[in-house]
């Protein structure tokens, strides 16, 4: 069953369920599958935790900031496990060496709508090696722990959603900037969100909030910008949020400038965004 | 005897509408009415202004805008050979009302390429009313009202089919004009149908230079049915369909691919001469316009774009006249209308997803108004007219998409509620048998247009700026004064009108250096703002002189002046213009020679990148013959316009596009 059929089935089921509820005047809402609308990227069992682990996302894995949703099921009852501590560890195996990538573990042990939101920012595509994501689960329901490792095929998106730069300030610090596009972009005011990580070692990519950011959206085809944009400011965990104004649909180029105080760290990169 | 013969011929032609004579009661003296129907004209000549207008309607080829351009009160902004925008004096479109048969109707083009006068053919019309001082009767306004009054089916004859056929040709634009009118009447019913077809190629200016992108094609259908409920009550329905396509606009970067108007109304007319309440008209109506700009015929288009626009209006009104006594009466009007506008632009670049935005974010204007005019002719010498009107306007954005888009400009997207007030007081005094004068003082208000409130990066080819609206605009308010002097004696009529108004909160596009342009190649962005005030003033002079019974000389002058609060000239103000004609009738022939002259205009607005315009003089000759074939009348008109092939443009013509060069035309009319 492909993704579209899956969604249609869900919708049909929802409609029928509502219809039946309407008939029986039962006010209980139907059980809507919390993974509906997401794409399943991987599935496996965390050995030792008696837990089935599934990874969902809105899109297949790509180079950049991937928002992931982990679903845990009790391996015998198949019920959702909604209380667990999860640690994700991405690893790139390049045969001669390996490195990790920026990630965000679920912020709480308690699931949100039965799922555990987290993120992995793949910093290169799988063509350079092979990506794995290890998910370590401490199931707080059965108090068992275990882990499972998934292979993920990471592709470069059509328009880059992540760039890296070496700061002009010290010519050594390397930063990764991941674009988090608005889920429902409109002609109007949109949230402009991205995340900044600093490479500390091959395995450590902590969130960074040391830089200030300014940006300007333009339409390269039309050579014009838009008015009243709001520069992004750090809102926590390396996430920056501002407002970007689109005056029409089409291709927008979001040019970013990073500074520390008045010193430029980088001003040569941009994200292209089409809607 | 001759009069009776004339009248009976007119009767046979099916043109005399006797109810019209009664309708004259409705009009105040300051209404300028042009009868479009030749024959009705002759029966209704009442004052010299009418005579003045009627004099020019010798050419059945003329479009509604051709006729409008001849009026002393009207100036026309020209962007192409068709679709010129009528202005009352120098008041712009938003500052005056342009109605069709009392109905509100809004063009669907963000670039004003479709003033609604293009959707009406003279064959649809009974008359054109131009009201300046009492124009607020039809809607809160500063400049006044142009009302294109639609013709009614004629119910005077039993089971009689009448009509006329017209055919015309003009050389300068290789333009054909064909029109047919049919009228059928029984005792209770009358039907009238008309169709007009126009097909013009790119016209030639002086020296035979072809002006590219100036061609146009259109077809217009009118269908009316009238039912006589009883002696005093008439039920009428009118359908007007107008389709124009491939209309060129040489002054603009785009043409019009398609312009489609659908206009419907149902009216109930009550006319009871014995009652105090006379001439009551109820009308409900609906109209919609679809307008699509087109750049596919242009060369070197940087980026192809689609720009459709939609306008939908429905409304209702009631007009009535109450006779207080033999000297005084009251006229009332109550009206309601709701107009929805939307327009968008989609740009296409190969290999990219389309770029789409709203240029008129979907918006609605709901208007409810009440107007009353009190007229008292105290004695044979003194008349007083008091007009008042109050309007409630509600402007709102109707979709989330529209609100989202406009919030980019940090403009409020909340609903706008405004109450507008209008008042005028006119006093007329007759000093002698020949000489009378009137003075009018007025106060008017007008709501900002949808473009001024919500326009989103609308490119204005005149000054090469993108324009954006501002929902925080205040209504314009104006103090107005005008004086009219009349001198009439047998064989000579002279009138002089002088007017002045101070418009507070005048709405003008002001340059915004912080905003970046949307249109490739535009000079910048202007936003509509209220400036403290502007002055508009001017004068019109008309002379009708009959040195002999069959000779008539008519000369009209119009002059306009406009300045903002810094005494900077306002853009698009026409210079002094004169049209003088002499007409000689020899039995069935009539010969007309005329000159059109305009002064140079050197008072221009440099901020609007307005250029000065040279003066010009052109001459036209028109010859007409009226005859009869088997009791059916016919007429043939031929003429030469711009005889000396002068290269000229008027100041209100956009760009430096020259007008038609020497043009020969012929029109044949057959009545049955």
Fraction of residues in helix of chain B: under 10%
Based on secondary structure, the structural category of chain B is: mainly beta
Range of strand content of chain B? over 45%
The tally of helices of chain B reads: 7
Q: What name goes with the CATH superfamily of chain B?
A: TonB-dependent receptor, beta-barrel domain
Biggest interchain interface, per-side counts? A-B, 22 and 28 residues
Radius of gyration of chain A: 21 Å
SSE ordering of chain A: HEEEEEEEEEEEEEEEEEE
Low-confidence spans of chain A: 16-26
User: Which shape of chain B, going by the Cα principal axes?
Assistant: globular
Instruction: Characterize the main sheet of chain A.
Output: 5 strands, antiparallel
CATH top level label of chain B? Mainly Beta
The CATH architecture of the largest domain in chain A can be named as Sandwich
Number of domains of chain A: 3
What is the overall number of helices of chain A?
A: 1
CA gyration radius of chain B, whole angstroms: 24 Å
**How much helical structure, as a percent, in the residues of chain A?**
under 10%
For this structure, the CATH topology of the largest domain in chain A is Immunoglobulin-like
Gross morphology of chain A: globular
Mean pLDDT of chain A: 89
> What is the name of the CATH architecture of chain B?
Beta Barrel
Question: Keyphrases for this structure?
Answer:
heterodimer, A: 275 residues, mainly beta, Immunoglobulin-like, 3 domains, 5-stranded antiparallel β-sheet, 1 helix, B: 672 residues, Maltoporin, Chain A, 22-stranded antiparallel β-barrel, 4-stranded mixed β-sheet, 7 helices, 55% strand, globular, disordered N terminus
